[in-house]
Amino acid sequence: MNVGIIGIGIYLPTERMTGEEIAKIADIPAHIVKTKMGINQKTIAGKNDHTVQMGIKAAKDAIQNANIDPREIDVIIYIGEEHKEYPLWTAAIKIQEEVGATNAWAFDAQLRCGTTIMGIKLAKSLMLSDESIKTVLLAGGYRNHDFIDYKNERTRFMFNLGAGGGALVLRKDVKENIVYESEIITDGSFSEDVLVPVGGTKEPLTPEHLEQGLYRLDVLDPAGMKSRLEQKSLDNFIKVIRNSLVKSGFNESDLSYIGMLHVKKSAHDYVLKAFNLEEDNSIYLSDYGHIGQIDQILSLKLAQEEGKLHNGDVVTLVSAGIGYAWGAVTIRWGKE
């Protein structure tokens, strides 16, 4: 029983923030932003680019790309961020209403920037375990750049955060873009390293917090986190890709394309080199920034448009999210 990707959708805001603008606000050299951080420009949410709304636009694009009636969708999984139109709200049900998936049921899932990989694994598991579920829509949006303080040096590695929406349509018993096995690693030793320190039950939001600029992403132990992450992060990238391939029955030499999140250029190149791949075997998202869990969907879409994906190619999507969580899933691209 196969599960394949039959539709891909992307929505990108028209507004952009350039590397030069980031450099000026953050008071760092422009060449550092462009070469080390790898940001030529990034997408920025406009006035009406709300998180779930961007996911809805991407979902409609994916449904059109799949050439299906939305009433054929059985389940919708929201894979976007928790930072959205309302603080307490089930976004997937709103997507269901807006796309016209009247026969579906819907729920939200969350693993930060690892949510797309986890969502694909979850969607496949649902289809394999329940014969009534044949078509699943994954959709979501992201605009966590709202939480970035460019004066805070502790959060420099997140200056690449952008905005956008992405969606995938998965279907059971098809012979195209077959989803194989995934691998996910989570490490709770990082669970409270990166967070918004106020606005939750431990520290309810006050006017003073807003005045002090505390309602922003921050790193509580930057030196400790950097030291621990350097010991694990790149190794875990390699591990999840390798294990996903092995579990899927492929060799490392079979790998043709890696759909990778936006990270600093040296890390991107390190992962490619580990699998004897060239720059052409991936797309570095330097003109988009890091759109969270949407990166893998965007990479697939761009690779398809640029002719980088060929029938029979082995493709692995890889993610990493604060928490920390690393994930990968392998796909055999094209039609059998």
From TrEMBL:
GO terms for biological process: fatty acid biosynthetic process; secondary metabolite biosynthetic process. This is 3-oxoacyl-ACP synthase. Signal peptide: none annotated. It comes from Ureibacillus manganicus DSM 26584. It comes from the Bacteria. Gene3D superfamilies: 3.40.47.10. InterPro entries: ACP_syn_III_C, ACP_syn_III_N, Thiolase-like. Residues 246-333 form the Beta-ketoacyl-[acyl-carrier-protein] synthase III C-terminal domain. The keyword Transferase applies. Keywords: Acyltransferase, Transferase.
